[in-house]
Amino acid sequence: MEEYPRVIYGHDHSGTPQCPTVDADGVVDVSATRVSGWKTASIAVAEDDDLSLPVDLGEHYRYLAVIMPTLTPSRVGVQVAPAAAGPYLPLGRGLSAQTEPTAGGHATVFDIGGWRYVRLYTTVPQAADRTFSLQGVRG
């Protein structure tokens, strides 16, 4: 996969907020920083063991930051749609549009190019329910 810009918020070495919308307590104003806020994408084995339910990011975003739970080893990819009801199609083609095989437990970023409606999929059925945390990020 390509390398993607990382979005970092916080303070510098002297404690000064580095994002103009971080308050004195270090809390980021989500609407002003151009991120969607954290959403949940769940794979429920009883419903579909390799596909999450759709997630509405609320607006169109360039990147999708994803925190992955522990997984049955698999590649993870993104499907996108023009409307909440679909149709959902894989973003990109082939292995280059997915993560390397992973057992999860880490974070990654996908370049989703401006989509609002997304869902995650795995290339191997999951052995248990999985919950991913994700948020849209403007570039």
What's this model, at a glance?
This protein has 139 residues and is an all-beta fold. 3% of the residues lie in helices and 42% in strands.
CATH class category name? Mainly Beta
> What is the tally of beta strands?
8
Estimate the mean pLDDT confidence: 84
Percent strand: 35-45%
Percentage of helical residues? under 10%
Helix and strand sequence = HEEEEEEEE
Task: Characterize the main sheet.
Answer: 6 strands, antiparallel
Q: Quick one: overall form? A: globular
Could you please say which CATH topology applies here? Jelly Rolls
SSE map:
Blueprint: H1 30-33, E1 39-43, E2 55-67, E3 70-74, E4 76-81, E5 89-90, E6 102-104, E7 107-122, E8 130-137
Antiparallel strand pairs: 1-8, 2-7, 2-8, 3-6, 4-5, 4-7
Please characterize this protein's 3D structure:
This protein has one helix at 30-33; strands spanning 39-43, 55-67, 70-74, 76-81, 89-90, 102-104, 107-122, 130-137. The chain is mostly beta strands and 139 residues long. The protein has a single domain, classed as Jelly Rolls, CATH 2.60.120. The strands form 2 sheets. The protein has a 6-stranded antiparallel sheet with strand order 1-8-2-7-4-5, with no helix packed on it. The longest helix is centred in the N-terminal third of the chain and has 4 residues, at 30-33. The radius of gyration is 16 Å and the shape is globular.
List its salient traits.
139 residues, Jelly Rolls, 6-stranded antiparallel β-sheet, two-stranded antiparallel ribbon, 1 helix, 8 strands, disordered N terminus
